[in-house]
Specification:
Blueprint lengths: L3 E6 L10 E6 L7 E11 L1 H8 L4 H7 L12 E9 L11 E5 L11 E5 L3 E3 L6 H5 L2 H14 L7 E5 L4 H12 L3 E6 L4 H6 L4 E4 L12 E6 L6 H6 L1 E9 L4 H16 L4 E4 L7 H12 L7 E6 L3 H9 L6 E5 L5
Parallel strand pairs: 8-9, 8-11, 9-10, 11-12, 12-13, 14-15
Antiparallel strand pairs: 1-2, 3-4, 3-6, 3-15, 4-5, 5-7
Helix pairs in contact: 4-5
The chain binds NADP nicotinamide-adenine-dinucleotide phosphate.
């Protein structure tokens, strides 16, 4: 049996052009790890932020000061357990799993990856590997933003800005599953898709600025920022909560720095959710929503492993409709 595998390798920060498809050593699991044969991975905005070290903060937050610390990117995977370390007790060879590798060194853009078993959960029985790979970061970000930071309640009026992207398509469906009345903000071409995943109301941001309509929301999740924090404040009901989960650096910093000040001086609560925390419990929570059919991943495009650079170029344009998935084929 060969101990080589194909992987997309990144030796330097830069554009997707710096990524190379190479044969590298197939990893061996340590005692607490599981070796996963990756069948699908997915890519998100954070992959190109990490690739370009943009913002610069990526380098200071453990990405590697001069060069990427993790040579193989990719945090969302689904695959089959091929081998388990001596102390790994939760999985057996053959189990179908999915997980978020963002807290354990990445490595998803490869045929195989070794990961601590506590970042994995059994793949939802009802989903394909591609669908399962779309979930771990994007859906858990939406879940933690709405439930933990946003304290979502049934019957609330919830607005998702950026409802058509990777995080946004999950946010709309998760908010619905909590019994909220959901408004999705997206562009003209995505209105039908937003309705089809459950949005009760849709607003076309090319035609209407929801922050000026006079409508007020109990909870706003900005999957992508797009507005200054003062606009969001105007659109909140008196005890409303605003959660910024993504967007430009300016928007994220406004939420981080001004949000707590606004929250101290009035009844509205505003802030950034920070970085989502990879969490097995939340992965299992999402597994159950998927198995119940309450959430269905929206997959925009599929690419092969060698096409990861193209996938990231596409994502960088900022107009993905749902998730971008990498299908990993194994020829050997
Ligand atoms: N906090 C965390 O831990 C965490 C985790 C994951 C992601 N993030 C961040 O969250 C952000 C979103 O990630 P993502 O994967 O969802 O991004 P994405 O999939 O690339 O988002 C693209 C979507 O944004 C929509 N969009 C573009 N301009 C818009 C506007 N003015 N108003 C409303 N929607 C607009 C696009 O729709 P149109 O084509 O219709 O314009 C497209 O559907 C990124 O900044 C990412 O870094 C944070």
């Amino acid at each position: 049996m060969t101990n080589k595998m194909k992987a997309i390798v990144c030796y330097n920060y830069g554009s997707p052009d710096v990524l190379k498809l190479e044969e590298v050593e197939k990893p061996t699991p340590s005692d607490d790890e599981v070796l996963v044969k990756v069948h699908a991975a997915s890519a998100g905005a954070w992959d190109w932020h990490g690739l370009r070290a943009d913002p610069f903060l990526v380098r200071l937050m453990g990405g590697g000061l001069l060069k990427p610390k993790n040579k193989i990117l990719g945090s969302e995977i689904a695959g089959r357990v091929e081998a388990v370390g001596r102390n790994a007790k939760q999985f057996q060879p053959g189990d179908e799993v999915f997980g978020d590798l963002s807290g354990c060194g990445l490595g998803g853009f490869a045929e195989y990856v070794c990961v601590p078993e506590n970042v994995l959960a059994l793949k939802p029985a009802s989903t394909t590997f591609e669908e399962a790979a779309a979930v771990p970061v994007a859906a858990v970000t939406a879940l933690q933003g709405l439930r933990d930071k946003g304290q979502i309640q049934p019957g609330q009026k919830v607005l998702i800005n950026g409802a058509s992207g990777g995080v946004g398509t999950f946010a709309v469906q998760i908010a619905k599953s909590f019994g909220a009345e959901v408004t999705g903000v997206c562009s003209t071409r995505n209105l039908d898709m937003a309705r089809s995943i459950g949005a009760d109301h849709v607003i076309d941001y090319t035609q209407e600025d929801f922050t000026k309509s006079g409508q007020r929301y109990d909870l706003i999740l900005a999957a992508n920022g797009y507005h200054p924090i003062s606009d969001y404040k105007r659109a909140l009901s008196p005890k409303g909560i605003y959660v910024c989960s993504g967007g430009s650096m300016a928007q994220v910093f406004q939420a981080m720095l001004l949000g707590p000040l606004i929250s101290m001086t009035g009844s509205k609560k505003m802030g950034s959710m920070g970085v989502a925390k990879p969490n097995k419990k939340d992965l299992v929570f999402m597994k159950e929503l998927l198995e119940a059919g309450e959430v269905v991943p929206v997959i925009d495009r599929r690419y092969t492993l060698s096409e990861v650079p193209e996938a990231l170029r596409y994502l960088e344009e900022g107009h993905a409709q749902g998730k971008v998935v990498i299908t990993v084929e194994h020829n050997s």
